[in-house]
Amino acid sequence: MGVIEDLRYVNLEARWAEELEALELQSFPSANPADLYSAGELVELAEVFPEGGFVVLDGETPIAMGLGVRVHFDLSRPQHRMKDLMSGHKAGHDPTGEWYYGTDIAVNPSYRRRGIGSRLYDLRKEVCRTLGLRGIIAGGVIPGYAEHKDRMSAAEYVEKVAAGELYDRTLSFQIENGFEARGVLENYIEDPEVDNWASLIVWETR
User: Class for domain 3-204, per CATH?
Assistant: First the structure.
């Protein structure tokens, strides 16, 4: 699937579930672990949609992942929590879904700023093209909002980041990779650092 700097990009397999659970906890330390993937959920995801999940290996050690499921999504009614959206099918995956829902991108902090995230986004976009999906939808964490939440709403913050007036290490990166910020999601994930807010990001297959 590709080698960059001796890293291998492969499809999700159940054998990495425990290591990937630990990677998530390391990548999102302020989030409620109940809102993140458990090892059991990762095993389920590997069973139902392995072609939509990607793991980055350094040798035999997983150091990053980009995961997702197929869903039906009404853009006119975007408010949701990730766990609620994923409750209707095994691992949240609906094999008839028109959209790829990006549930997770996590990169070991020691490997960040090496192009891994961009490569994972490219692989997900290729899944959309191959399967004829409408595009990618996700709730994007906005870690930078923690420094601004006393002065502005989450919606104002996302607007400023989208306009290039503020920089957010996650949302700005997503915009650079072709995503549009289309508002905010309330109580998306339990993360007191950002008062549980996230941005709604969308990339449409062209």
Answer: alpha beta
